[in-house]
């Protein structure tokens, strides 16, 4: 299954190869990052500052994605699908992809494990459920776009999996999981670890197999 083909070459070139649309995407992502940080800001003082990237799961995904898309700026005026790639960029694009996929799906799962606390059609639920779920599922689309313009390696995939599992230990062993309206149990912890493997497996499929090289 080639997930990268969910977005055609023409779509990628039109939206990521155009200055106005690429800048617009960067602004939207940066704004979404700030909105995400606001969700964590009340509890962040209890977390050591250098561990904030592990604590702010979705904001971290958006920050990585913004960096990935920003690396395309020098390619404007040419074919963005042929953007130069080096080893640091393969790691950045891989981390961006797995964080976006994992926490895009995690948010949907976490809110639907206890739908009675989130699901509804009143004004509050429109934001607390529908808006949050909808915007986080768009993370997956951004991840696919990054896979279309990026590359990965086996080393990058292994590094990404290791970091995701470290993040899971940080969240559920040490109790620094994202703020929820319920106390996460073993089920959510197990699903989260499972999503780490799913995200990395998806990266292996989404980035073209011909460029997944042994380091």
Automatic annotation (TrEMBL):
InterPro entries: DUF1405. It comes from the Archaea. The keyword Ribonucleoprotein does not apply. Keywords: Membrane, Transmembrane, Transmembrane helix. The keyword Ribonucleoprotein does not apply. The chain crosses the membrane at residues 21-41, 61-77, 89-109, 129-149, 156-174, 186-207. This is DUF1405 domain-containing protein. It comes from Halogranum salarium B-1.
């Amino acid at each position: 299954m080639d997930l990268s083909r969910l977005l055609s070459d023409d779509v990628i070139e039109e939206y990521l190869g155009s200055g106005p649309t690429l800048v617009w995407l960067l602004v939207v992502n940066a704004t979404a990052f700030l909105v995400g940080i606001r969700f964590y800001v009340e509890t962040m003082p209890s977390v050591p500052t250098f561990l904030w990237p592990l604590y702010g799961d979705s904001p971290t995904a958006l920050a990585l994605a913004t960096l990935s898309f920003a690396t395309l700026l020098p390619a404007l005026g040419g074919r963005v699908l042929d953007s130069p790639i080096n080893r640091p960029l393969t790691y950045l694009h891989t981390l961006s992809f797995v964080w976006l996929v994992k926490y895009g799906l995690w948010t949907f799962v976490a809110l639907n494990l206890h739908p009675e606390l989130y699901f509804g059609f009143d004004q509050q639920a429109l934001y607390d459920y529908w808006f949050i779920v909808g915007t986080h599922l768009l993370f997956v689309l951004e991840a696919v776009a990054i896979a279309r313009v990026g590359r990965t390696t086996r080393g990058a995939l292994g590094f990404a999996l290791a970091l995701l599992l470290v993040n899971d230990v940080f969240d559920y062993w040490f109790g620094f999981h994202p703020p929820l309206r319920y106390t996460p149990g073993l089920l959510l912890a197990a699903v989260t670890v499972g999503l780490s493997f799913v995200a990395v497996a998806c990266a292996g499929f989404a980035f073209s197999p011909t460029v997944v090289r042994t380091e």
